[in-house]
Fold these 4 entries.
Entry 1:
Amino acid sequence: MNRELSATGPAYLYDLVADDLARRIETGELAVNTPLPAEQTLARQYGVSLGTCRHATKVLRVRDL
């Protein structure tokens, strides 16, 4: 499954992935206080590199969702 990433302006891919993951948590698609899917799984879902997913999960930890 490839998730669609879009931005209204210039953005880094890791920010787009982090934003989408945050949205999925906020809407309940991903449960709060449970582990995210493996980074390899997220990379496949979003069609991005493993490094991009690692950076996105770091961004989420800083946001403290």
Entry 2:
Amino acid sequence: MIRTDSADGSVDAVDAGIDELLERVRGGFERVEPRDAYDAVLAGDALLVDIRYAALRERDGLIPGALVIERNELEWRLDPQGSHRAPEATGHDLRVVVICNEGYASSLAAASLHQLGLSRATDMAGGFQAWRAAGLPVT
């Protein structure tokens, strides 16, 4: 069972497994497919953020134009009010699409960004592997 604060939907306590937690947090935003993420970036409507660790990036490559921020630094780098924010963290209305390897960790990361007030944060279904399988650019 997952208990939430009814005012903002944030998770207060979790008495469930990861599958239930993922289902709960994914209910708080609309995930995007790789092609939609690509189109949003081309239109200037989204910032792709790659949270994969270095070994995966070295093994599989990078998405051109994606901002690389490893998961353990994500909140500090994207908090528009934070002293360690990335220059791209321009405001709470920024549309961020978080990408991990297969689309699991990115869902939890997007939920965390929502708690920071980044209400347009989401993640990409299937992660980097789905991006590559869709034939989208990789360097």
Entry 3:
Amino acid sequence: MALPWTLHGDGKTVAPGEVVAPGERLSWPRTIGLGAQHVVAMFGATFLVPLLTGFPPATTVLFSGIGTILFLLITQNRLPSYLGSSFAFIAPVTAALASEQAADPMGAALFGIVAVGVMLALIGALVIWTGTGWIDVLMPPVVAGAIVALIGLNLAPAAKSNFDQAPLTALITLAAVLLTTVLFRGILGRISILIGVLVGYIAAVLQGQVDFEAIQQAAWVGLPEFHLAGNPFADAALWGLLPAFLPIVLVLIAENVGHVRGVAQMTDPSVNRQTGRALFADGVATTIAGFFGGSGTTTYGENIGVMAATRVYSTAAYWVAGFVAILLGLSPKFGALVNTIPAGVLGGATVALYGLIGIIGVKIWVDNKVDFSRPVNQFTAATALIIGIANFTIEFGSVVFNGIALGTVAAIVVYHAMNAIGKARGTA
């Protein structure tokens, strides 16, 4: 069977003003090299999520590779994207793991991930049928930006907790992240989180903060650790944790839609037709990962950066990246190595990373020229952010709504209610 990519030009160079389209590729050695770049670009963020939540890193990386392959298949090989771990899941997963009501806290967290995946897949199917117009109405930029921002800022206490465990190591890690960003161009500048973690890890080793025994005992090849999602019909406490997870669907919608539009803008407007399939694919990938012990997935902006820098949007490179991730996931020694990264290193990296998630929300406002002279926009953002950052919590029996859930609901309700009342009263 013929491979679905045509060779771009001579397969070696990309002329000024041109891009390598999703259906094209460069020579295979160059394509493999680009795939390796995408693995490096996604790795810094993808492996941090399981470390911060306590999930097995190898399992998460394995399912990110499987999810990427599924994404390419479902989007008909027309949308270049890597599905890495979503930071939006960290807060609700952490809350589920700390639950005293659930019989199996890990299973409870995975049930939440599965529920989000199923809902996202259903929304993707709906978008395939109806288009994205209703998403734009439900989540205008001021609402989408507020939701994304509050998720990052809600995690600030977790970053401080890790930072406090080894302040010197954390400070070295943070400094390395910041300096790498401005000292290097191209791929090195774009993987500053990963380089910062490597520098911080070396500093931790020199201070005797790393134990290598688990690495020595781990096998080079083998299956990662799997854990099945909890059964909500056997453990009713799982339903009470669900409200904390459901707002994540809105974040994944915003991330996927933004990714598709970004690729379409740089390649071909027809790529926008893949929006429904992208949502469906991410939902399927998240569901499968959640069923067996992996983190929820999302399309990765880090990899868009690599494509923008190289002007190569070939899906062939992502097939390479997906299979490389699967191979890494099948190495217990790799998982053991990642698990040795100490809290201080995580603290330094997450001070920057969680803040960046908040700034992405602000960027949504800036890119869409949100008018903050309008009181409706002011109160939408202000109310949602304070609820999310302060982590307001409401409990109804065993059902818990955390700051992310309440902040998300507040952003949507405040915006639409104030607009509706303003229009009815003629004060809008």
Entry 4:
Amino acid sequence: MWGSANTFEATLRLKITDAAGRTAANIYATATSGTGTRGTFDVTFPYKATRSGAGTLTAYWDSPEDGRAVTEDTVPLTVRR
């Protein structure tokens, strides 16, 4: 997947979940810049799904203060086994 982000220190998380909410992948990605400047990223990541079907891709960054998800964005997708 590829995209752009403006996150703390250019680091973001990408998580794929299936329709039941089970996590198939959850990785860190690094954009070309961050902390006030939008940067691009392009990553390929493996995932394990128990079945094909509807799913969600969630992109967010972890707060350096308390670790909670910040500026979360989700898009629907189809998970393939």
